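Hi P.,

Sorry for the delay on this. The queue was packed all week, but I finally got your sequence through. Input first:
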Amino acid sequence: MSLLTLGRLGITTSLIVALSTSAAFAADCGHRGALDDRFCDENMDMVADTPKDSSRWRNPSTLVFTYTPVEDPAVYQDAFADFQRHLSEATGKRVVYYNVHSNSAQVEAMRSGRLHIAGFSTGPTGYAVNLAGYVPIAVKGYENEFQGYNLITIVRADSDIQTMEDLKGRTVAHTAVSSNSGNLAPRALFPALGVVPDEDYKVAYSGKHDQSVMGVLTGDYDAAPVASDVYDRMVEAGRVKAEDFRVIYRSARFPTSAFGYAHDLHPELVEKIKDAFDSYRFPPEMQANFDGADRFFPITYKDDWEVVRDIAHATGTAYTERGLQQLAEREAAAAKK
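Then the structure:
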């Protein structure tokens, strides 16, 4: 079909160019794996390669950074203020914080080019990698290992629920559709414990881990699977009291939120960003916010996110455009409740 014919069909010039460019990228890619058609993965590390065409490399004067919306975004804007200053010094660029209020919105922000550097929650990291060209390079950690967390199931201390099977017939708060510990891992792991979400108990999406915890405390939910690190921070900050809850289940360890950058940033800028993460040491107040972690520990998506991808596959979660659309729809529906 000619460009003239496409124009007569009402397709705009910009879209014609985008379609043509996309086709050229597709023809020039030897391997992309599960990545969107806009990206290439010829080194087979499961993340998008730097574009071959240097005209596509971005070198913005201002870098936009954000952290996953697992709790109150304003809390983390303050928590990362010192790191933003370090990142600015390392790159020679202004760094601003971008507040996001849902996982799908954060993925879309990087996909559209509005977001350059980010910390994505464990579960949504796969969407960001496949659909937004996100390259994870680190998680919060210590000198010899990264910081992990467990999926825990909490109930009120005075609840008659003693085992996972006691959840049958109850209302249980999951956090968000894309959340690893708040939804995907429970769906993959709980059946072996004698309880199937949506079949044995009613799932109510709270939106965030801290909202699940508070909902259990107030009696809105009978129980909730949440990330142990979020729960522990709430206890340490005095937002809730540990004696008001009981933990009836604790999983094996998962990696925490991934930090990384957009794949199409200029390679020289990428090296400065990597150096900033590698050289930064958390000040005492930041260590207090993140369970004693004192640095960013290097990881790879291919190796360190394998268990997360396995859980996603086991639950039928697809890191595709349609999957992201469904995620956005479910997050919007949950926000209205």
